[in-house]
Request: fold
Amino acid sequence: MTAPLVALERAAVGYGGQPLLRDVSLAVVPGDFVAIVGPNGGGKTTILRALLGVLPVIAGHRLQPGPLRIGYVPQRDHVDAYWPLTVAEVALMGRYRRVGPARRPGPADREAVAAALARVGIGDLSPRAFRTLSGGQRQRTLIARALAADPELLALDEPTNGMDPAAELDAMDVLRSLHRGGRLAIVMVSHRIEAVANYASTLAFVDKDKSLFRIGPLGEMLSPSALGELYGRAVTVREENGRRFVYPEPAP
Amino acid sequence: MSAWNDFLAAREIWREPLLASLVAGALCGFLGVYVVLRRTVFVSAALTQLSTLGLIAALILEESLGVEVEHTGVQLAVALAFSVAGALALGMALQGRKLPGEAGVGMSYVLAGALVVLGANRLVHAAHDLNAMVFGNAVAVPVADLVALTTVALVCAVVHLLFAKELVFVSFDAETAAALGFDTRLWNGLLFLTLGLAIPVAARTMGALPVFAFLTIPAAAALLLARRLRAAFVIATLIGLVAATGGYVLSWFWQLPTGPTMVVLAGVFVIPGALLRARQ
Reply:
């Protein structure tokens, strides 16, 4: 069995010593694609923050066997687009941890940034002002910044929030290409199960109001019983042209 | 020409104040870029009030102890203590989750402002100083104040040169910085510490209201003009420097109050950027 990069074991997570969710157990191994799904305000980001070690667990444990290179993509609207920064300057921030305090990024860091931007298909946007980009281009910039850290674990918080369906598909395809065949582990938070149902290998359902935390392989979690637990109503999963679509049924 | 000759002849009078205005203007202009981009303009307003409150506390203490000679070093130390403590507390408040950060900033501003008025009401001998403290009167700047201001400016310059990338990162996207392992409290604390140090020493020269203005206007003007962050820092520093020294000189020639003249001149520098943006 592969050792996890990072894990939560029977963790209680929340803020100010007040747990939002208890008994959260989640292990991320190299090559995983874990999607944390649930309603807005359901506790998804809280779990992600606890997993990354930004938020200390209130009870239980957070395990991280060794040093871990993390790439993080915040919610797009949490990043202030007013700052007069270029795409390359934003992406370079992903290298700052490696560079260390009181030191300047060098040519190797700039090469890593150029490679990361090319990897997400926006190498030509490098000198453009971040604030002039479209939503999808900004998202790619933030993913490139995360990749510039050469991460073992890529964590994304609602990366497709506010995107139109085409841009969402585009962003998810970028993630799939990054993940495919590699050892990069991805943990992604989304309130839209449809956004992840065709990409993730593991799903976690979270809703603090129902004290719900359930995790399992994709096939198991797309079962009517698991989906019914999350949505509180009957849910149908259909496959069309090789893609899964999730339809909550109207309440009886 | 005779006015200019008179001005040059009086350099013994204006040398320290002009140098102090230059340093204070440049320092506030530079730091203002963070203040404006972080949307914490009212943090600087609250800190200038707290700094003034510190000065008044020192004056009341001196009067109540019967000290007849003003100890400007003590006054400045108390103002620094108030400002630094306020800066660190407000920096924490802005990250807190129990109350919106603006609530802490607003409360600090109005409470400090009310206490300044109440404190000034108790002053007997030093009440005449209050107007200069609040509105600025860079006519006479003791060498000790200039030394303190220059020292703080150098400390801020070193901190901001060494740790520019960390301070920019946590200011631009604290959430990601924290996820990547940066101690955002530490870096935010360092940034607010430089603000807390700069405001009282600059306020001794320019006055509280001009300092608040110089933490806002040059940065706003620079951000309208600049396409790059580095350029914004350089332009804001230059605008602060030119507006403060130019305002001082103009106030001398036109016999105007110094602080407001500096502020109005700084405001003039907003026009080119505003016109440029209007054309885009």
